[in-house]
Design brief:
Length: 543
Amino acid sequence: MPIVTFDYNDFINLLGYKISKKELIERLPMIGADLDKVEDNEISMEFFPNRPDLASVEGIARASRAFFDFEKGLKKYDVKKSDILLNVDPSVKKVRPYVTTALVTNVTMTDELIASLMELQEKLHFGLGRNRKKVAIGVHNYEPVEPPFTYKAVDPDAVQFVPLNKVESMTMTEILRRHEKGVDYAHLIEGFDKHPLIVDANNNVLSYPPIINGSLTEVTPFTTDLFIDVTGTSRKAVNYALNIVVTSLAERGGQIHSTNVIDGKESFVVPDLKPVRRTLSKDYVNNVLGTKIDEKKITFCLQKMGYNATSIKGKIDVEIPAWRADILHDIDLIEDVAVGYGFDKFETDFPKALTFGYELPKRGFYDALKSVMIGLGFNEVNTFTISNEQDEFKKMGLKPDKCVEIQNPVGEEYSCLRVGLIPSLLKILSENRHHSLPQQIFELGIVINDSFKNTYHLGFVKIDAKANFTECKSLTEAILRETEAKYSIKNKDHPGFVKGRCASIDINNKEVGFFGELHPKTITEFELEHPIIGCEIQAGMLF
């Protein structure tokens, strides 16, 4: 969860009201946070990740005014019109289709604002932005550029500019190879012939999203006017990110100015801070919360959480702030009713129905299998269910097959769900290759089968200078004998194993596992040197 660190005195200045540090530390977690630490006047709070609007001290101060009953209801910000235009070229649609912008003037770049803005930007990139894939934010000094602006896709070898924190001009391709941010985020635009770019009327580069800004618009301590651009793959997400950033700047005295985004036949005036309306039923709220509170109290609780709310005949009309990205359903509003009401006020009670749990039938069988493996001298390990196609297929000599891919992986090492246990076990051996031999480990864990269902497999590997097929067959048959399974063993060709030293395990004429000596190529792919035997069985088929 994101940790926001702020100075108590800076918070009080933003809040505009007096509250003791002790009371703040006691009451603030009730909004939806955990106290991380307090060092003198520096307070660190860990906020729940569903509230990106609380990722800055400015957002916390705004929420606190309502929660502490200083200024209940929806905070309104003055947005002045401007004639700033940004034209979206159709060429960018296949790369990074959405963009939104704003101008904030009269900004005083204090140390506190700079630190908070940088922290907010990074937290939005990581959470709401999914590490810049979904949302990337650019903050610019507005003075050296001239509208109208253009958002387009260009040949990365045809455009060059000086990126932020550098003094030499580079092409966009060079930035991806040589700039720190380019190396970190190049994968986000990998595979595209053209890359996104924002330029001004004089073709000066403001931003190369989602990679880096141009040095021309670098923000300095003397900057007073900030131009904000947000690009991404979700229109809702980019709008929420812009709303959170500009309202945070407005909390410090900045003046928000709208801009006009022209996207083909559509045009948008942004930021759009008009609230979204929903209607809640009093009965639905009480049914979910198990309470008997009236409309007036529900309205009060919502106002305490920063909403405008009015009630008429059992219905509560709610105006949701434009920066609340977490409100997706009525149940989210009910959660805030509970927060505003106070979790400490809910009465405790015993469960209405008493039930008794029991062990699933297969669990006892799986525990018995583990005991068999331990009796055979193996050590149990637990590895990640998340793997990658390189380990699951290529290193095992297999052609890439269907698997469950992760849409937004943290890195290349964790890009899919595993289809077998042996690659995971070999990685454990690789991590422990500096230890003495023999090493023999097993795992009873979940893999994803051909039908994309979770299934339990039993796998073991042993690395030893004398490891061979005969030993592997003996160990496998010992396991099968203990389960009293009726099986047959047949020759099997597997590219990850030595030809003629691999066999399948069949039950009722259906293959349920395999075992044998691993091929030298497989062994070296996992950076190992000694002979290895391995076995993998569908554990559920032995039950």
